[in-house]
Amino acid sequence: MINFIFGIHSHQPLGNFGWVFEEAYNKSYRPFMEILEEFSSMKVAVHFSGPLLEWIDENHPEYIELLKKLVKKGQLEIVVAGFYEPVLAAIPKEDRIEQIKLLKEFAKKLGYDAKGVWLTERVWQPELVKTLKESGIEYVIVDDYHFMSAGLSKDELYWPYYTEDGGEVIVVFPIDETLRYLIPFRPVEKTIRYLEGLADDDPSKMAVFHDDGEKFGVWPGTYEWVYQKGWLREFFDAITSNEKINLMLYSEYLSKFTPRGLVYLPIASYFEMSEWSLPAKQAKLFVEFVGRLKGRNEFERYRMFVRGGIWKNFFYKYPESNFMHKRMLYVSKLVRDIPEARKYLLKAQCNDAYWHGVFGGVYLPHLRRAVWENIIRAQSFVSTGNRVFDVDFDGKTEVMLENESFIATIKPHYGGSIFELSSKRKGVNYGDVLARRWEHYHDISTSTPEEECDGIASIHELGKKIPEKIKRELAYDWQLRAILQDHFIPTTETLDSYRLVRYRELGDFINQPYEFELYDGGVRLWRNGGIYAEKKVPAKVEKRIELVNDGFLAEYRVSLSEPYRALFGVEINLAVHSVMESPEEFEAGRIFVNDPHGIGKVEIELDRKANIWKFPVKTLSQSESGWDFIQQGVSYTLLFPVEKELEFEIRFREIT
Ligand code: CA
C-alpha cells in the first residue's frame, strides 16, 4: 500500500492581462474542477492565489460555488499561502502574517479552515517556522530537494517530518520530484506503475505530488493531452480504483499518522531554481556540471550535493529587481499603521515580477508595472519630502525627491541619474526600464534530445534556437538604464553602433559617482571626470534637477578643460510599452511620447534643437512558449555637439 496525496497550485500574476486569466480559466481551472466533480471519490489539495481568486470572484462567481460544493463533499482540501502570492522569505514578518490571514479568510468563505501552506516557489528559510505557527499553520509543503540538500536520501522521503526553529515546530511534506516530471506529461500508467513500485507494508508511507495547476491545460500542448485526449479522466479513474494506492489529503494523513522524525532544512527551493538564481556565468557552469554528472551516470548518486544559488540572490542578479524590492520594503515600513495603504503594499509583494526562471518574470514590463503601481499607490498615503538615504541597501546613498505629484530616486554614485521617476497621478514609474543582459540559456544553440518520446515535452525539455532575426538586433548593455545618463560619444559614431553597443564611450560619467548637494527645491550633482581620447581631457558635468508640478527640470553645464570635439549625449530611458518598429534619428527641440497602454503621454522639451537617437530597448528571455524579444522601453538620446563649454535645459512634462 502507498498513500498518495495529489495537490495543485493555481496562480496568475498580479497585472497579467485579462485575456490570459480567461484563457487559463477555460483551458485549465474550469475543466479540471468539472472533471473532478465527476469523480466523487477523487480528492485534491488545492491552492489558489489571491490575484486569481479575486479575478474568478469577479468574472466567474459560479466557479466559487463549485469550489464550495467540492469542499463540502470532502473532495478538496484548501491550502493557503500569502494572499498576493509573495515569496514569504522575501517580505517582513508582519506582512507575511497579514498575507496568510487574508487567504485563510478567503478559504473560510469556501468552507475550509486551512492549516496548511503552499510555500510560494518553495522558497524555504528556517525562520519561517515562527511566522507560520503564528499564522495558525500546522504544515507546509516543500520539495524532496530541500530534504536532499539536508543530506537525506531519496528512500527516506516518503514521509513527512517535523522541523523546528526558535522552539516552534511545524510539519514539512516533501514533494516527489519524479512525480512532478511524470504528471501529467507521461502516460497515466507510468505514474501508476511508479506508485505501485513504492508500495510496501508500511501503512504510513506516502508520496506527494503538488505542482502548478497550469500544467493541466495552460502549458504548451497540455490542453489537448490532459483533456481532449482524456489524460485527466483516465488518471482520476486509475488513482481511485487501484487497490495498492490509497488517495489522501494532507490533513487526513496527519490525523492518522505521526511524522517520521525531526529534520532541519537549509535555505532552498526546488532544483531548477538553484540553477536560475545563479548569476548567468555561474548558471552556465552549473548546467555544464550537471550535464557532466549525467553524462557519467553519476548525477543520481551525487545529486544531494549538487546545489546552485538561492532565490533571494535574484536581487543580486537583477539590480532592477533589487531596487523594486527594497522600495517595496521601504513602503512596507512607512505604511505599517495605515490600513488604507496596506492592500496596495501587499499587492506590491506578488512574487512574479521579482525573478526569472522559465517564465518571463522580471522581464515582463506589465508585471513590473503592476508592482510599481502598487508601491506608488501605497506610498501616496504618506509624504516624506526630500530625503537622502540608502534605498537599496548597497551601501551607497540615494536622493529621493518628492513633491505632491512625483517621487524621484536619483543615484549620485551611478551617473547622478534618475532611476525612479514615479508619478502619483498615473501610478507609473517612467524609469522602469530593464537593461539588456546575457542569460546563460542564450548560448544553448541545439535542442536537447528527449529521453522518452511518449507523452508530451515539459517546458524544461523544449529545444530552442535563437532566430536569426533576433540575433541581428540582440545587444547587451554594460550599464543599467536610467533617466539623464551622460555620454561623451565620438562624432563618427552612428545610431546603429550606439544602440547595438558597438560604439566607443569616451567619457567616464555613466556609472561613476557624482558629488551632490540638496538645495531648496532640488539637487545639484557634479562630476569632475574626463574624456578618454588620444589623451585624457578633463571634463566636468554639472546638472541641477528639480521636481515641478508636472515633471522635472534639468539644467546642464558641461565644460572641457581644453578643446575637444565630441558629442555630449543625455540619454533618457522611458518605460514606453507601445511597440517601436525601427530606430529613428531626427532633429527636434521637443519630443512627444504617446503610450496609451503604458506610461501615457509625456513631453520632453529642450531649450534648443538637438539631434535625437531613438531606439527600442529589447531584451531576450525565455518563456514557456519559446523566445521572447521584449521591448522594455525606449531610449532617447539628446545629442549636443560640444567643444569647450555647453549649457542647456531639459524639461520633462507629464500630460494627464
Ligand atoms: Ca543605495
UniProtKB/TrEMBL annotation:
- What protein name does the entry list? DUF1926 domain-containing protein
Give a yes or no for keyword Transferase in this entry: no
The record places domain Alpha-amylase/4-alpha-glucanotransferase central at 309-381
Residues covered by the Alpha-amylase/4-alpha-glucanotransferase C-terminal domain: 390-651
The GO biological-process annotations, alphabetized, read as: carbohydrate metabolic process
Gene3D superfamilies (alphabetical): 2.70.98.10, 3.20.110.20
Which keywords label this protein?
Answer: Carbohydrate metabolism
Does this entry carry the keyword Transcription? no
The record's family statement is: Belongs to the glycosyl hydrolase 57 family.
Q: Name one GO molecular function term.
A: catalytic activity
UniProt domain Glycoside hydrolase family 57 N-terminal: residue ranges: 5-266
Q: Which organism is it from?
A: Thermococcus paralvinellae
